[in-house]
Recover the amino acids of this structure.
């Protein structure tokens, strides 16, 4: 979460200082409404809990790079707010291993799909701050390996409530820089957090 806070602070400072300059050169101000397609990449952290019995910390973590593509549509609410919805597809992240004694439990996250509604406000021209909530699903392969016998592997599609928020900073009337955080708890033992950044194209 320290990485997330630093990234959000850096983006906010950049947006606050650069918005006035771009607003003067961008021509007509962006509305952040209508259809949009987004491409983002960033940090993914998967967490498992209580997958094997034993003493000590019962949480396991693994961080890596994630990529996501999304498309959505936003409707203006007056001149200072928007409401909309989006769908996305992204990579799942790295394998998460938990070892207790001679047993190893591995969670292998696969592709993830999500659908969410979002509500945003425009505190200044060229800057959008928003929150989002919805539902996500992810293909997951879980493997239990022990010294005696064959490893047991199961595959399933997990579902969970997604929430998050982010900011968009206009580079032009139809292109904006985007930074976003989201989190999903898929079941009792597996959750995911992401900090992503990229570009949003309005049309």
């Amino acid at each position: 979460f320290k990485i997330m806070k630093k990234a959000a602070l850096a983006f906010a400072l950049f947006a606050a200082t650069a918005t006035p300059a771009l607003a003067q050169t961008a021509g007509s101000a962006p509305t952040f409404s209508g259809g949009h397609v987004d491409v983002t990449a960033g940090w993914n952290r998967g967490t498992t809990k209580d997958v094997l019995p034993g003493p000590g910390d019962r949480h396991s973590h693994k961080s890596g790079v994630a990529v996501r593509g999304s498309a959505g549509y936003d409707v203006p609410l007056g001149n200072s707010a928007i409401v909309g919805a989006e769908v996305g597809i992204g990579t799942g992240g790295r394998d998460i291993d938990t070892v207790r004694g001679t047993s190893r439990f591995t969670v292998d996250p696969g592709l993830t799909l999500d659908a969410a509604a979002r509500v945003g406000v425009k505190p200044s021209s060229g800057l959008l701050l928003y929150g989002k909530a919805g539902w996500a699903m992810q293909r997951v392969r879980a493997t239990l390996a022990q010294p005696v016998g064959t490893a047991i592997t199961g595959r399933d599609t997990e579902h969970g409530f997604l929430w998050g928020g982010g900011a968009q900073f206009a580079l032009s009337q139809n292109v904006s820089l985007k930074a976003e955080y989201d989190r999903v708890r898929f079941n009792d033992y597996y959750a995911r957090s992401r900090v992503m950044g990229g570009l949003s194209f309005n049309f």
